Amino acid sequence: MRYLPKSPADREAMLKAIGVRSIDDLFSPIPSEYRLTRDLHVPRQMAESEIVDWFKLRSKENGDGYTSFLGAGAYFHYRPVVIDALVQRGEFLTAYTPYQAEFAQGTLQAIFEFQTMVSELTGMDLANASMYDGSTGAAEAVMMAVRITGRSGAVVARSLHPEYREVLGTYATHQRIPLKTVSFTDSGRIDLKELEQAVAEDTACVLIQSPNFFGTIEDVEAIAEIAHKREALLIVSIAEAVSLGIVEPPRVADIIAMEAQSFGVPMGFGGPDGGQEGEARICANTGDARAAHPPRESDLEYLHESGAGCADGQHLYDGVWQGRAAGAGQAESGEDRLCCRPVRQERQGTVCERAAL
Fold first, then answer.
1. Which of 207, 208, 275, 270 is nearest to 241 (CA)?
2. At what angle do helices 162-175 and 134-149 cross, to 10 degrees?
């Protein structure tokens, strides 16, 4: 609504209509000693850049120069401001969940590109479009390994994020998956000798984190050899996706569970997060893209959960950071990477040999 100010003549007419001579007469019930007759002593207005500088100066009064280890993996990261503007466009932010292609073409396109980028980043053959967070991604990866191998147990590194282990413990209790925990050495890496003794014939998978909770890079090759020798799957959890910018992806892993919050998702009192897990949501090229609830055997456009908004933001972050155009057409590598060699057919669809969760 436009603001239309009154002219002096309009004000005089209004004052005359209510029977007073000036605006000051309207304040006559207030005693004169309580009336403010001068300008307020407040600083002048500040530009946005000046406000940012002011708060930076104030923050330096709070123990500047010390490193904070609070957060345990949840930290502030640089986010281009254009992400907020793009992710709130009507192509992405709608009143509909992305079940129906007619209402979610922008979201589906962004998710498709996001999965392709995650596949390129992790070196996996298949990637999905996010679980709730890295902890649920890791837990789902263990259950996926149990279904694929037909075995019941899991061996977990004690250097895995403690909150991830808590979430996994909850899942495992109700899924009746026995867990074995392997300690770490003075170097911060998993104890390989203890690991070799812990992996048994009924072990479905070995779950580690690299870089682990101490920031140490595990010897993934050696761990994979131990796991695969007993025909168990290796799951590598990555709590900080940005680390893959300088650390070699654990390509020898069978499943990667990753937290991708640092890719363009802001911290909001601890969340939201955006974990990767290979079964929850897959967006791919299909023969019939208009199906609202297509059968999983023929069409992988079936979507699930509310993490799609995080996936959109993470894709846009990756696109902005790398100079890519969001939604500028399907990446050719996406079709190739979303095709994988099936291990076995399940009720929930085809399970793939290597997946980024």
1. 275
2. 40
Residue 10 token pair: 């309009």
Provide the whole-model pTM: 0.66
Model confidence pLDDT, tens digit, residues 213-268: 999 999 999 999 999 999 999 999 998 888 888 999 999 999 999 988 888 777 77
Which domains, from first to last, does the chain contain?
A: 77-131+275-340 (no CATH), 134-258 (3.40.640.10)
pLDDT tens digits for 121-172? 899 988 887 778 889 999 999 999 999 999 999 999 999 999 999 999 999 9
